[in-house]
Fold:
Amino acid sequence: MSELDTFANGKNNEYDDLAGDLQDLVVGDVNKELFQEYINGKKNGKALHDYKDISDFLISKNMQYMMLDELVGEMGRLLEDCSNDTYTELEEQVIPDYLKLMRLSDTGNDENPMLLHELYLDITTFSNMITNHQEQDLLQNGIMIQSTIKYLQELDALIMLSQCHMYIHQLVTFLQNAKIGTLLVSDENSTSLRLFYHYYQLIKHVSLLLGKLSKCDSKFLHQLRSSFENNVLVDFNNQLEKLVLQINASYENEKGSNTQLSSLVYTILKDQLDHDNEQ
Structure:
């Protein structure tokens, strides 16, 4: 199978192997217990693992392999669960104590003032706990969730940029190995005309991708751009110039120029001119 057929069929064993490896990864559940380990470690200075920061902690849980939209939704639900904890504790602890207080106030027992005082202290302690939970824990959880989402969004953008780099690298390598200068393009060989036109379409595609990444200061991208401009484009333009001379020679010999080859060259030259005018 030729390299052109391999490219057209989209076969890539390296990416297939990578996809198989990713299927074996186990992504941790997004819940309060997941972050409690990190939070307790930060408070007590005794984390179960030596995480440098929250990013290192999340990577250890394979969170970078989770779909971003799904993770954002899970983070939102986690923040809602943390908020609901306050109401649950209120229902399970404060209301029963309040009802007990109401019953004691109606008994007339001499021990009631002492019990009321104890209940008052308990309620005050619990009230302070709620205040602390709302002002500190919820704030910390919210900040952590927001920073996690931002980190994963940046990671997702970095992954997409890396994939784009590799895609451009594959295209430039293919165009270089195709050696368009050795292709004999003529009206007698319709296959050569189609290949030459498809080669030009790939060149346009690479030019578009490089244009979109013009602000990316990547050494690898600079190398790809240099190889594309100094090798691929030079070879293609040389071949295109030869075809123009071939068409002119045919016209001068009165063989006519209204051929498939002349139409193809005209289409490419006009497309290049239109593209330059749009810049």
Q: What stands out?
A: The radius of gyration is 34 Å. The CA atoms of residues 127 and 251 lie 96 Å apart.
